[in-house]
Automatic annotation (TrEMBL):
Residues 174-449 form the SAM-dependent MTase RsmB/NOP-type domain. Belongs to the class I-like SAM-binding methyltransferase superfamily. RsmB/NOP family. This is 16S rRNA (cytosine(967)-C(5))-methyltransferase. It comes from Oryzomonas sagensis. Pfam families: Methyltr_RsmB-F, NusB, RsmF-B_ferredox. The lineage of its organism: Bacteria, Pseudomonadati, Thermodesulfobacteriota, Desulfuromonadia, Geobacterales.
Length: 449
């Protein structure tokens, strides 16, 4: 094995270049690299930190680099840009790496990947160290969106959208929170244990964890961990699921013995939670448009000891998927922009455009209408997304209600009074990373008359 094969910076550079060229999800590419077994010890932690850190802070990094590099960044070789971002990220955001090491390792990486660029890399990074206190950012008074975007590494169009939804301090807090590393949140599998028992098991194993504030099944784990090594994983005592995502199944509130449909169910977090709330009794159908994703749902159900769940390939874009009035409750967690989870999938924010939001909203409206036909009279439909945009959330619900007089919006404030801080005045679920320390989620509960 060549020495460079076990270099976390080179591995990070390869992943960043692949994301820039081919797309793909950072977490999957990181897992694939780690599975090779080349990186050991602290390098296994530094590698994902570099990838996610550069993706989360890319906007700020590029704003700084534009003041240090004479040429526009898009005229440089992709490898040079990737190495500059990696080096600058270490200097600007990682206190534990000495400045000399960050510069020297970046120059060494350049010599391996783009030998002629070593001098440029060295000069730019050392110039940053000399000039970092004099770098400029847009004037917040003249252009608030540009200022928040540059300082907190978000697309300017997205910050402008947040400024239209929140006051300026709130928009800044959201922009800042959306560039941070998210918490590790687990959902207790109450079919096999209790939350208190799981916490006790973690404490005995030296793992620090606390109860979530709103989900009765959620715990937040401190520090970084490989999930399969946590106590209770093999026994199916928990699964990874953010607290906001857990709230969605709780809002649908399925009962044992009911017939329930989870549309767009992969990878299965909400589906297995629904089964848990049903006490593993009744009929639960988890569907997805992708046949390739169904085994993931089956495996999750098997590990958690769930047998009331069946899976099927279904395209919810097509009407009359099932006979009308088939299910007591239906969950549509619609495919969306993922703006509420960009701290987990930071690569997405650099691909999305406002046109994508409008395209997704149109599809969501059609899927919501199709899902509604499958609900029994008196039954419940919950529409949810992991997006922060009004176009994908409130506006979809308003459009749906205007076309379906046989449905009414239920007020979550009255149904779930203990969680009022998560609900809007109209009674819809709105979780925000900066307010609730959970992913950005939306849900509306609709009852068929």
């Amino acid at each position: 094995m060549a020495p460079s094969t076990a270099n976390p910076r080179q591995a990070a550079c390869r992943v960043l270049l692949r994301i820039a060229k081919e797309g793909g999800f950072a977490d999957r590419l990181i897992d694939h690299e780690l599975e090779k077994g080349h990186l050991t010890g602290p390098d296994r932690g530094l590698f994902p930190e570099l990838v996610f850190g550069v993706l989360r802070r890319r906007g700020s990094l590029d704003h700084i680099l534009a003041q240090l590099v004479e040429k526009p960044l898009d005229t440089l070789q992709p490898q040079v840009v990737a190495i500059l971002r990696l080096g600058l990220y270490q200097l600007a955001y990682l206190d534990r790496i000495p400045e000399s090491a960050a510069v020297n390792e970046s120059v060494n990486l350049a010599r391996e990947m783009v030998p002629r660029a070593g001098g440029l890399i060295n000069a730019v990074l050392r110039t940053y160290l000399r000039r970092k206190d004099g770098l400029t950012f847009p004037d917040p008074a003249a252009n608030p969106a540009a200022a928040l975007a540059a300082r907190h590494s978000q697309p300017e169009w997205l910050v402008a959208q947040w400024l239209g939804q929140l006051d300026r301090p709130g928009a800044e807090a959201l922009a800042e929170a959306s560039s941070r590393q998210p918490p590790l949140t687990l959902r207790t599998n109450t079919l096999r244990t209790t939350r208190d028992e799981l916490l006790r098991l973690f404490t005995e194993d030296g793992v620090s964890a606390v109860r979530c504030a709103h989900s009765p099944h959620g715990i937040q784990v401190e520090g970084r961990h490989q999930i399969p090594t946590l106590p209770g994983y093999r026994e199916g005592l928990f699964c990874v699921q953010d607290e906001a995502s857990q709230m969605v199944a709780l809002l649908l509130a399925p009962q044992p013995g009911e017939r329930v449909l989870d549309c767009c169910a992969a990878p299965g977090g909400k589906a297995t939670h629904l089964a848990q709330l049903m006490a593993n009794r009744g009929e639960l159908l988890a569907t997805d448009i992708s046949r390739a994703k169904l085994p993931v749902i089956r495996e999750a159900a098997q590990r958690l000891g769930i047998d009331c769940l069946a899976v099927a390939t279904v395209d919810l874009h097509r009407p009359e998927t099932f006979p009308a009035g088939t299910f007591d409750r239906v969950l549509l967690d619609a495919p969306c922009s993922g703006l509420g989870v960009i701290r987990r999938n930071p690569e997405a924010k650099w691909r999305l455009t406002p046109d994508d939001i409008l395209r997704l909203a149109a599809a969501q409206k059609a899927m919501c209408a199709n899902a509604a036909t499958m609900v029994k009279s008196g039954g419940i439909l919950v529409y949810s997304t992991c997006s922060t945009s009004r176009e994908e959330n409130e506006q979809v619900v308003q459009d749906f209600l205007s076309r379906h007089p046989d449905y009414v919006l239920e007020d979550l404030n009255g149904l779930f009074p203990d969680n009022r801080e998560l609900f809007t005045a109209e009674g819809m679920f709105r979780a925000w990373p900066h307010r609730h320390n959970m992913d950005g989620f939306f849900a509306a509960r609709l009852r068929k008359l």
